[in-house]
């Protein structure tokens, strides 16, 4: 299926009104069965509608769509079903334009890359970057094609992203932040997206969607794009590395409803770690490996959740009512960046990038544009 959420899951009206962390008008056929359940957000997040805007679910990657006769392999570890321990923020109503911008006192460091819908048309989404303190904004891509799912390399010198190439084909590129030159790493594998460089800088994990089988799988390749192969048993989307580089966290509907799983690079020790309703996709792992963030909920009612790395101690992190999605954790582990609609709820072009501390305080608005900004990913 498709975890796109935009404007998540992973990029927006179709699937789940998602405007995001999972594609071309032709890709719609592939997603039709899924799109009926995910409505406009997913389609906009994963399709390439000629003139539609990603909706509240454009973030998620592509939610996996598994053939009806597919039987998931058994998990090698027992499934964890942690008890909810939601500590919902007390502030549930936020006046428009009342959320402050970052201040020097916040001591925010690093850069954030994100998908910017500068033309208000999903088929020409671009990639932008901004310093975490709100300075240094610039647009990194400009060619006439859809670009999404950006992430920064561990050294902060380059940025990975996925871009439309041709029918049922999205390629992964690496762009130098110094020269602006982009290098294509994949070659017609299918719908390749959500790339992320390993902590040691040697490998890239990504999702590969096969339009013929309608399966999404987690793949790994060398940093230069060579030796690509799937991780056995890892059917799903929106992968992210553990800090030690030994485990992959990803979303999957292998057990029915979509949840988060962890798996080793060899495809062993697969384990379900969440029991949340309506997991969308894009998640992130804290630098010290102790906690993760993800997002969950129905269209226009998404929220970001934070929990221990084993899926326990779950609590809602974001204030209720912002349709919050696609979280990523700061390099120091103190903040979470995400997309939401606090200031323009219900507006297709109203999603902006926000920051919040991991204790649920000090909500900040990072972007303020007339178009949708989504799928943020924090790096050094």
Secondary structure layout:
Elements: H1 27-46, E1 111-116, E2 126-131, E3 138-139, E4 147-152, E5 158-166, E6 169-176, E7 182-184, E8 191-197, E9 203-210, E10 215-222, E11 229-235, E12 237-241, E13 247-252, E14 259-264, E15 271-272, E16 284-285, E17 291-296, E18 303-308, E19 315-316, E20 325-329, E21 335-340, E22 352-357, E23 364-365, E24 373-379
Antiparallel strand pairs: 1-2, 1-24, 2-3, 4-5, 5-6, 6-7, 8-9, 9-10, 10-11, 12-13, 13-14, 14-15, 16-17, 17-18, 18-19, 20-21, 21-22, 22-23
Uncertain runs: 1-92
Reading off the top of the CATH hierarchy, the class of the domain at 104-277 and 360-379 is best stated as: Mainly Beta
Kindly, what is the distance between the CA atoms of the first and last residues, rounded to a whole number of angstroms?
32 Å
Q: Note the main sheet.
A: 4 strands, antiparallel
Count of helical stretches: 1
Trace the largest sheet across and list its strands: 3-2-1-24
Q: What percent of residues are in strands?
A: 25-35%
Q: In sequence order, what are the helices and strands, one letter per element?
A: HEEEEEEEEEEEEEEEEEEEEEEEE
C-alpha Rg (nearest Å): 18 Å
What is the structural class?
mainly beta
